Structures are given as C-alpha cells and as structure tokens.
Input
Amino acid sequence: MVTHGGIGSMMECIRYEVPMVIVPGARDQPGNRARAVYHGIAVGAEMATLTGEILAKKVSEAMGDAGLRERLARMRERVERENGLDEAVRLIERVSGRCG
Output
C-alpha cells in the first residue's frame, strides 16, 4: 500500500500484513513513517522528490522484502496481544463510573 502514513491506514496494513510505502504529508505522518521504517515494517519516501520511477522502485522494494513481511507478522501479533480496545473500554467505563 502506498499511504500518507496516517495511523489508521498503518494499523490496517499491520492487521492484514500489507507492505507499505509511506509518503508523509504533514502533522504526525513524518513521525509515523520514521517509526515504521525504524521497525522495518515499511519503506519510506519523500513527497518533495517522489517520481514515478522512485515510487515504482520503493513499491518493488517493499513487496520483495521477505524480512519486512516477517516483521509485519510479528508486529500484528504484538498489537493483537495488547488487546488495546478492550483495555480502552474498561478504562473509559471505570473513569466514567459505569463499571467497577
């Protein structure tokens, strides 16, 4: 997937183990790209210098990297183990007084 690096898009790619090329725009996107590249689950590119040729090379790099796919699988497993949604619901209910 070629993405701007929004957290929702990135989490969906992690969930389905889809290799990413992240071309950030603004706000949190450059940092999201930096973290994804650091963890080896994405390839990064710069919007200001992006050409069709560069993009094609980046997509090929992401799609052909078996290690990237393995790291995506491990990241997906880690995210699933966190069970973050259930924890967030419990916290909200506890803070709002709706649950013990």
Q: What stands out?
A: The chain has a mean pLDDT of 92. Helices lie at 7-15, 29-38, 52-64, 66-82, 84-96. The two ends are 42 Å apart (CA to CA).
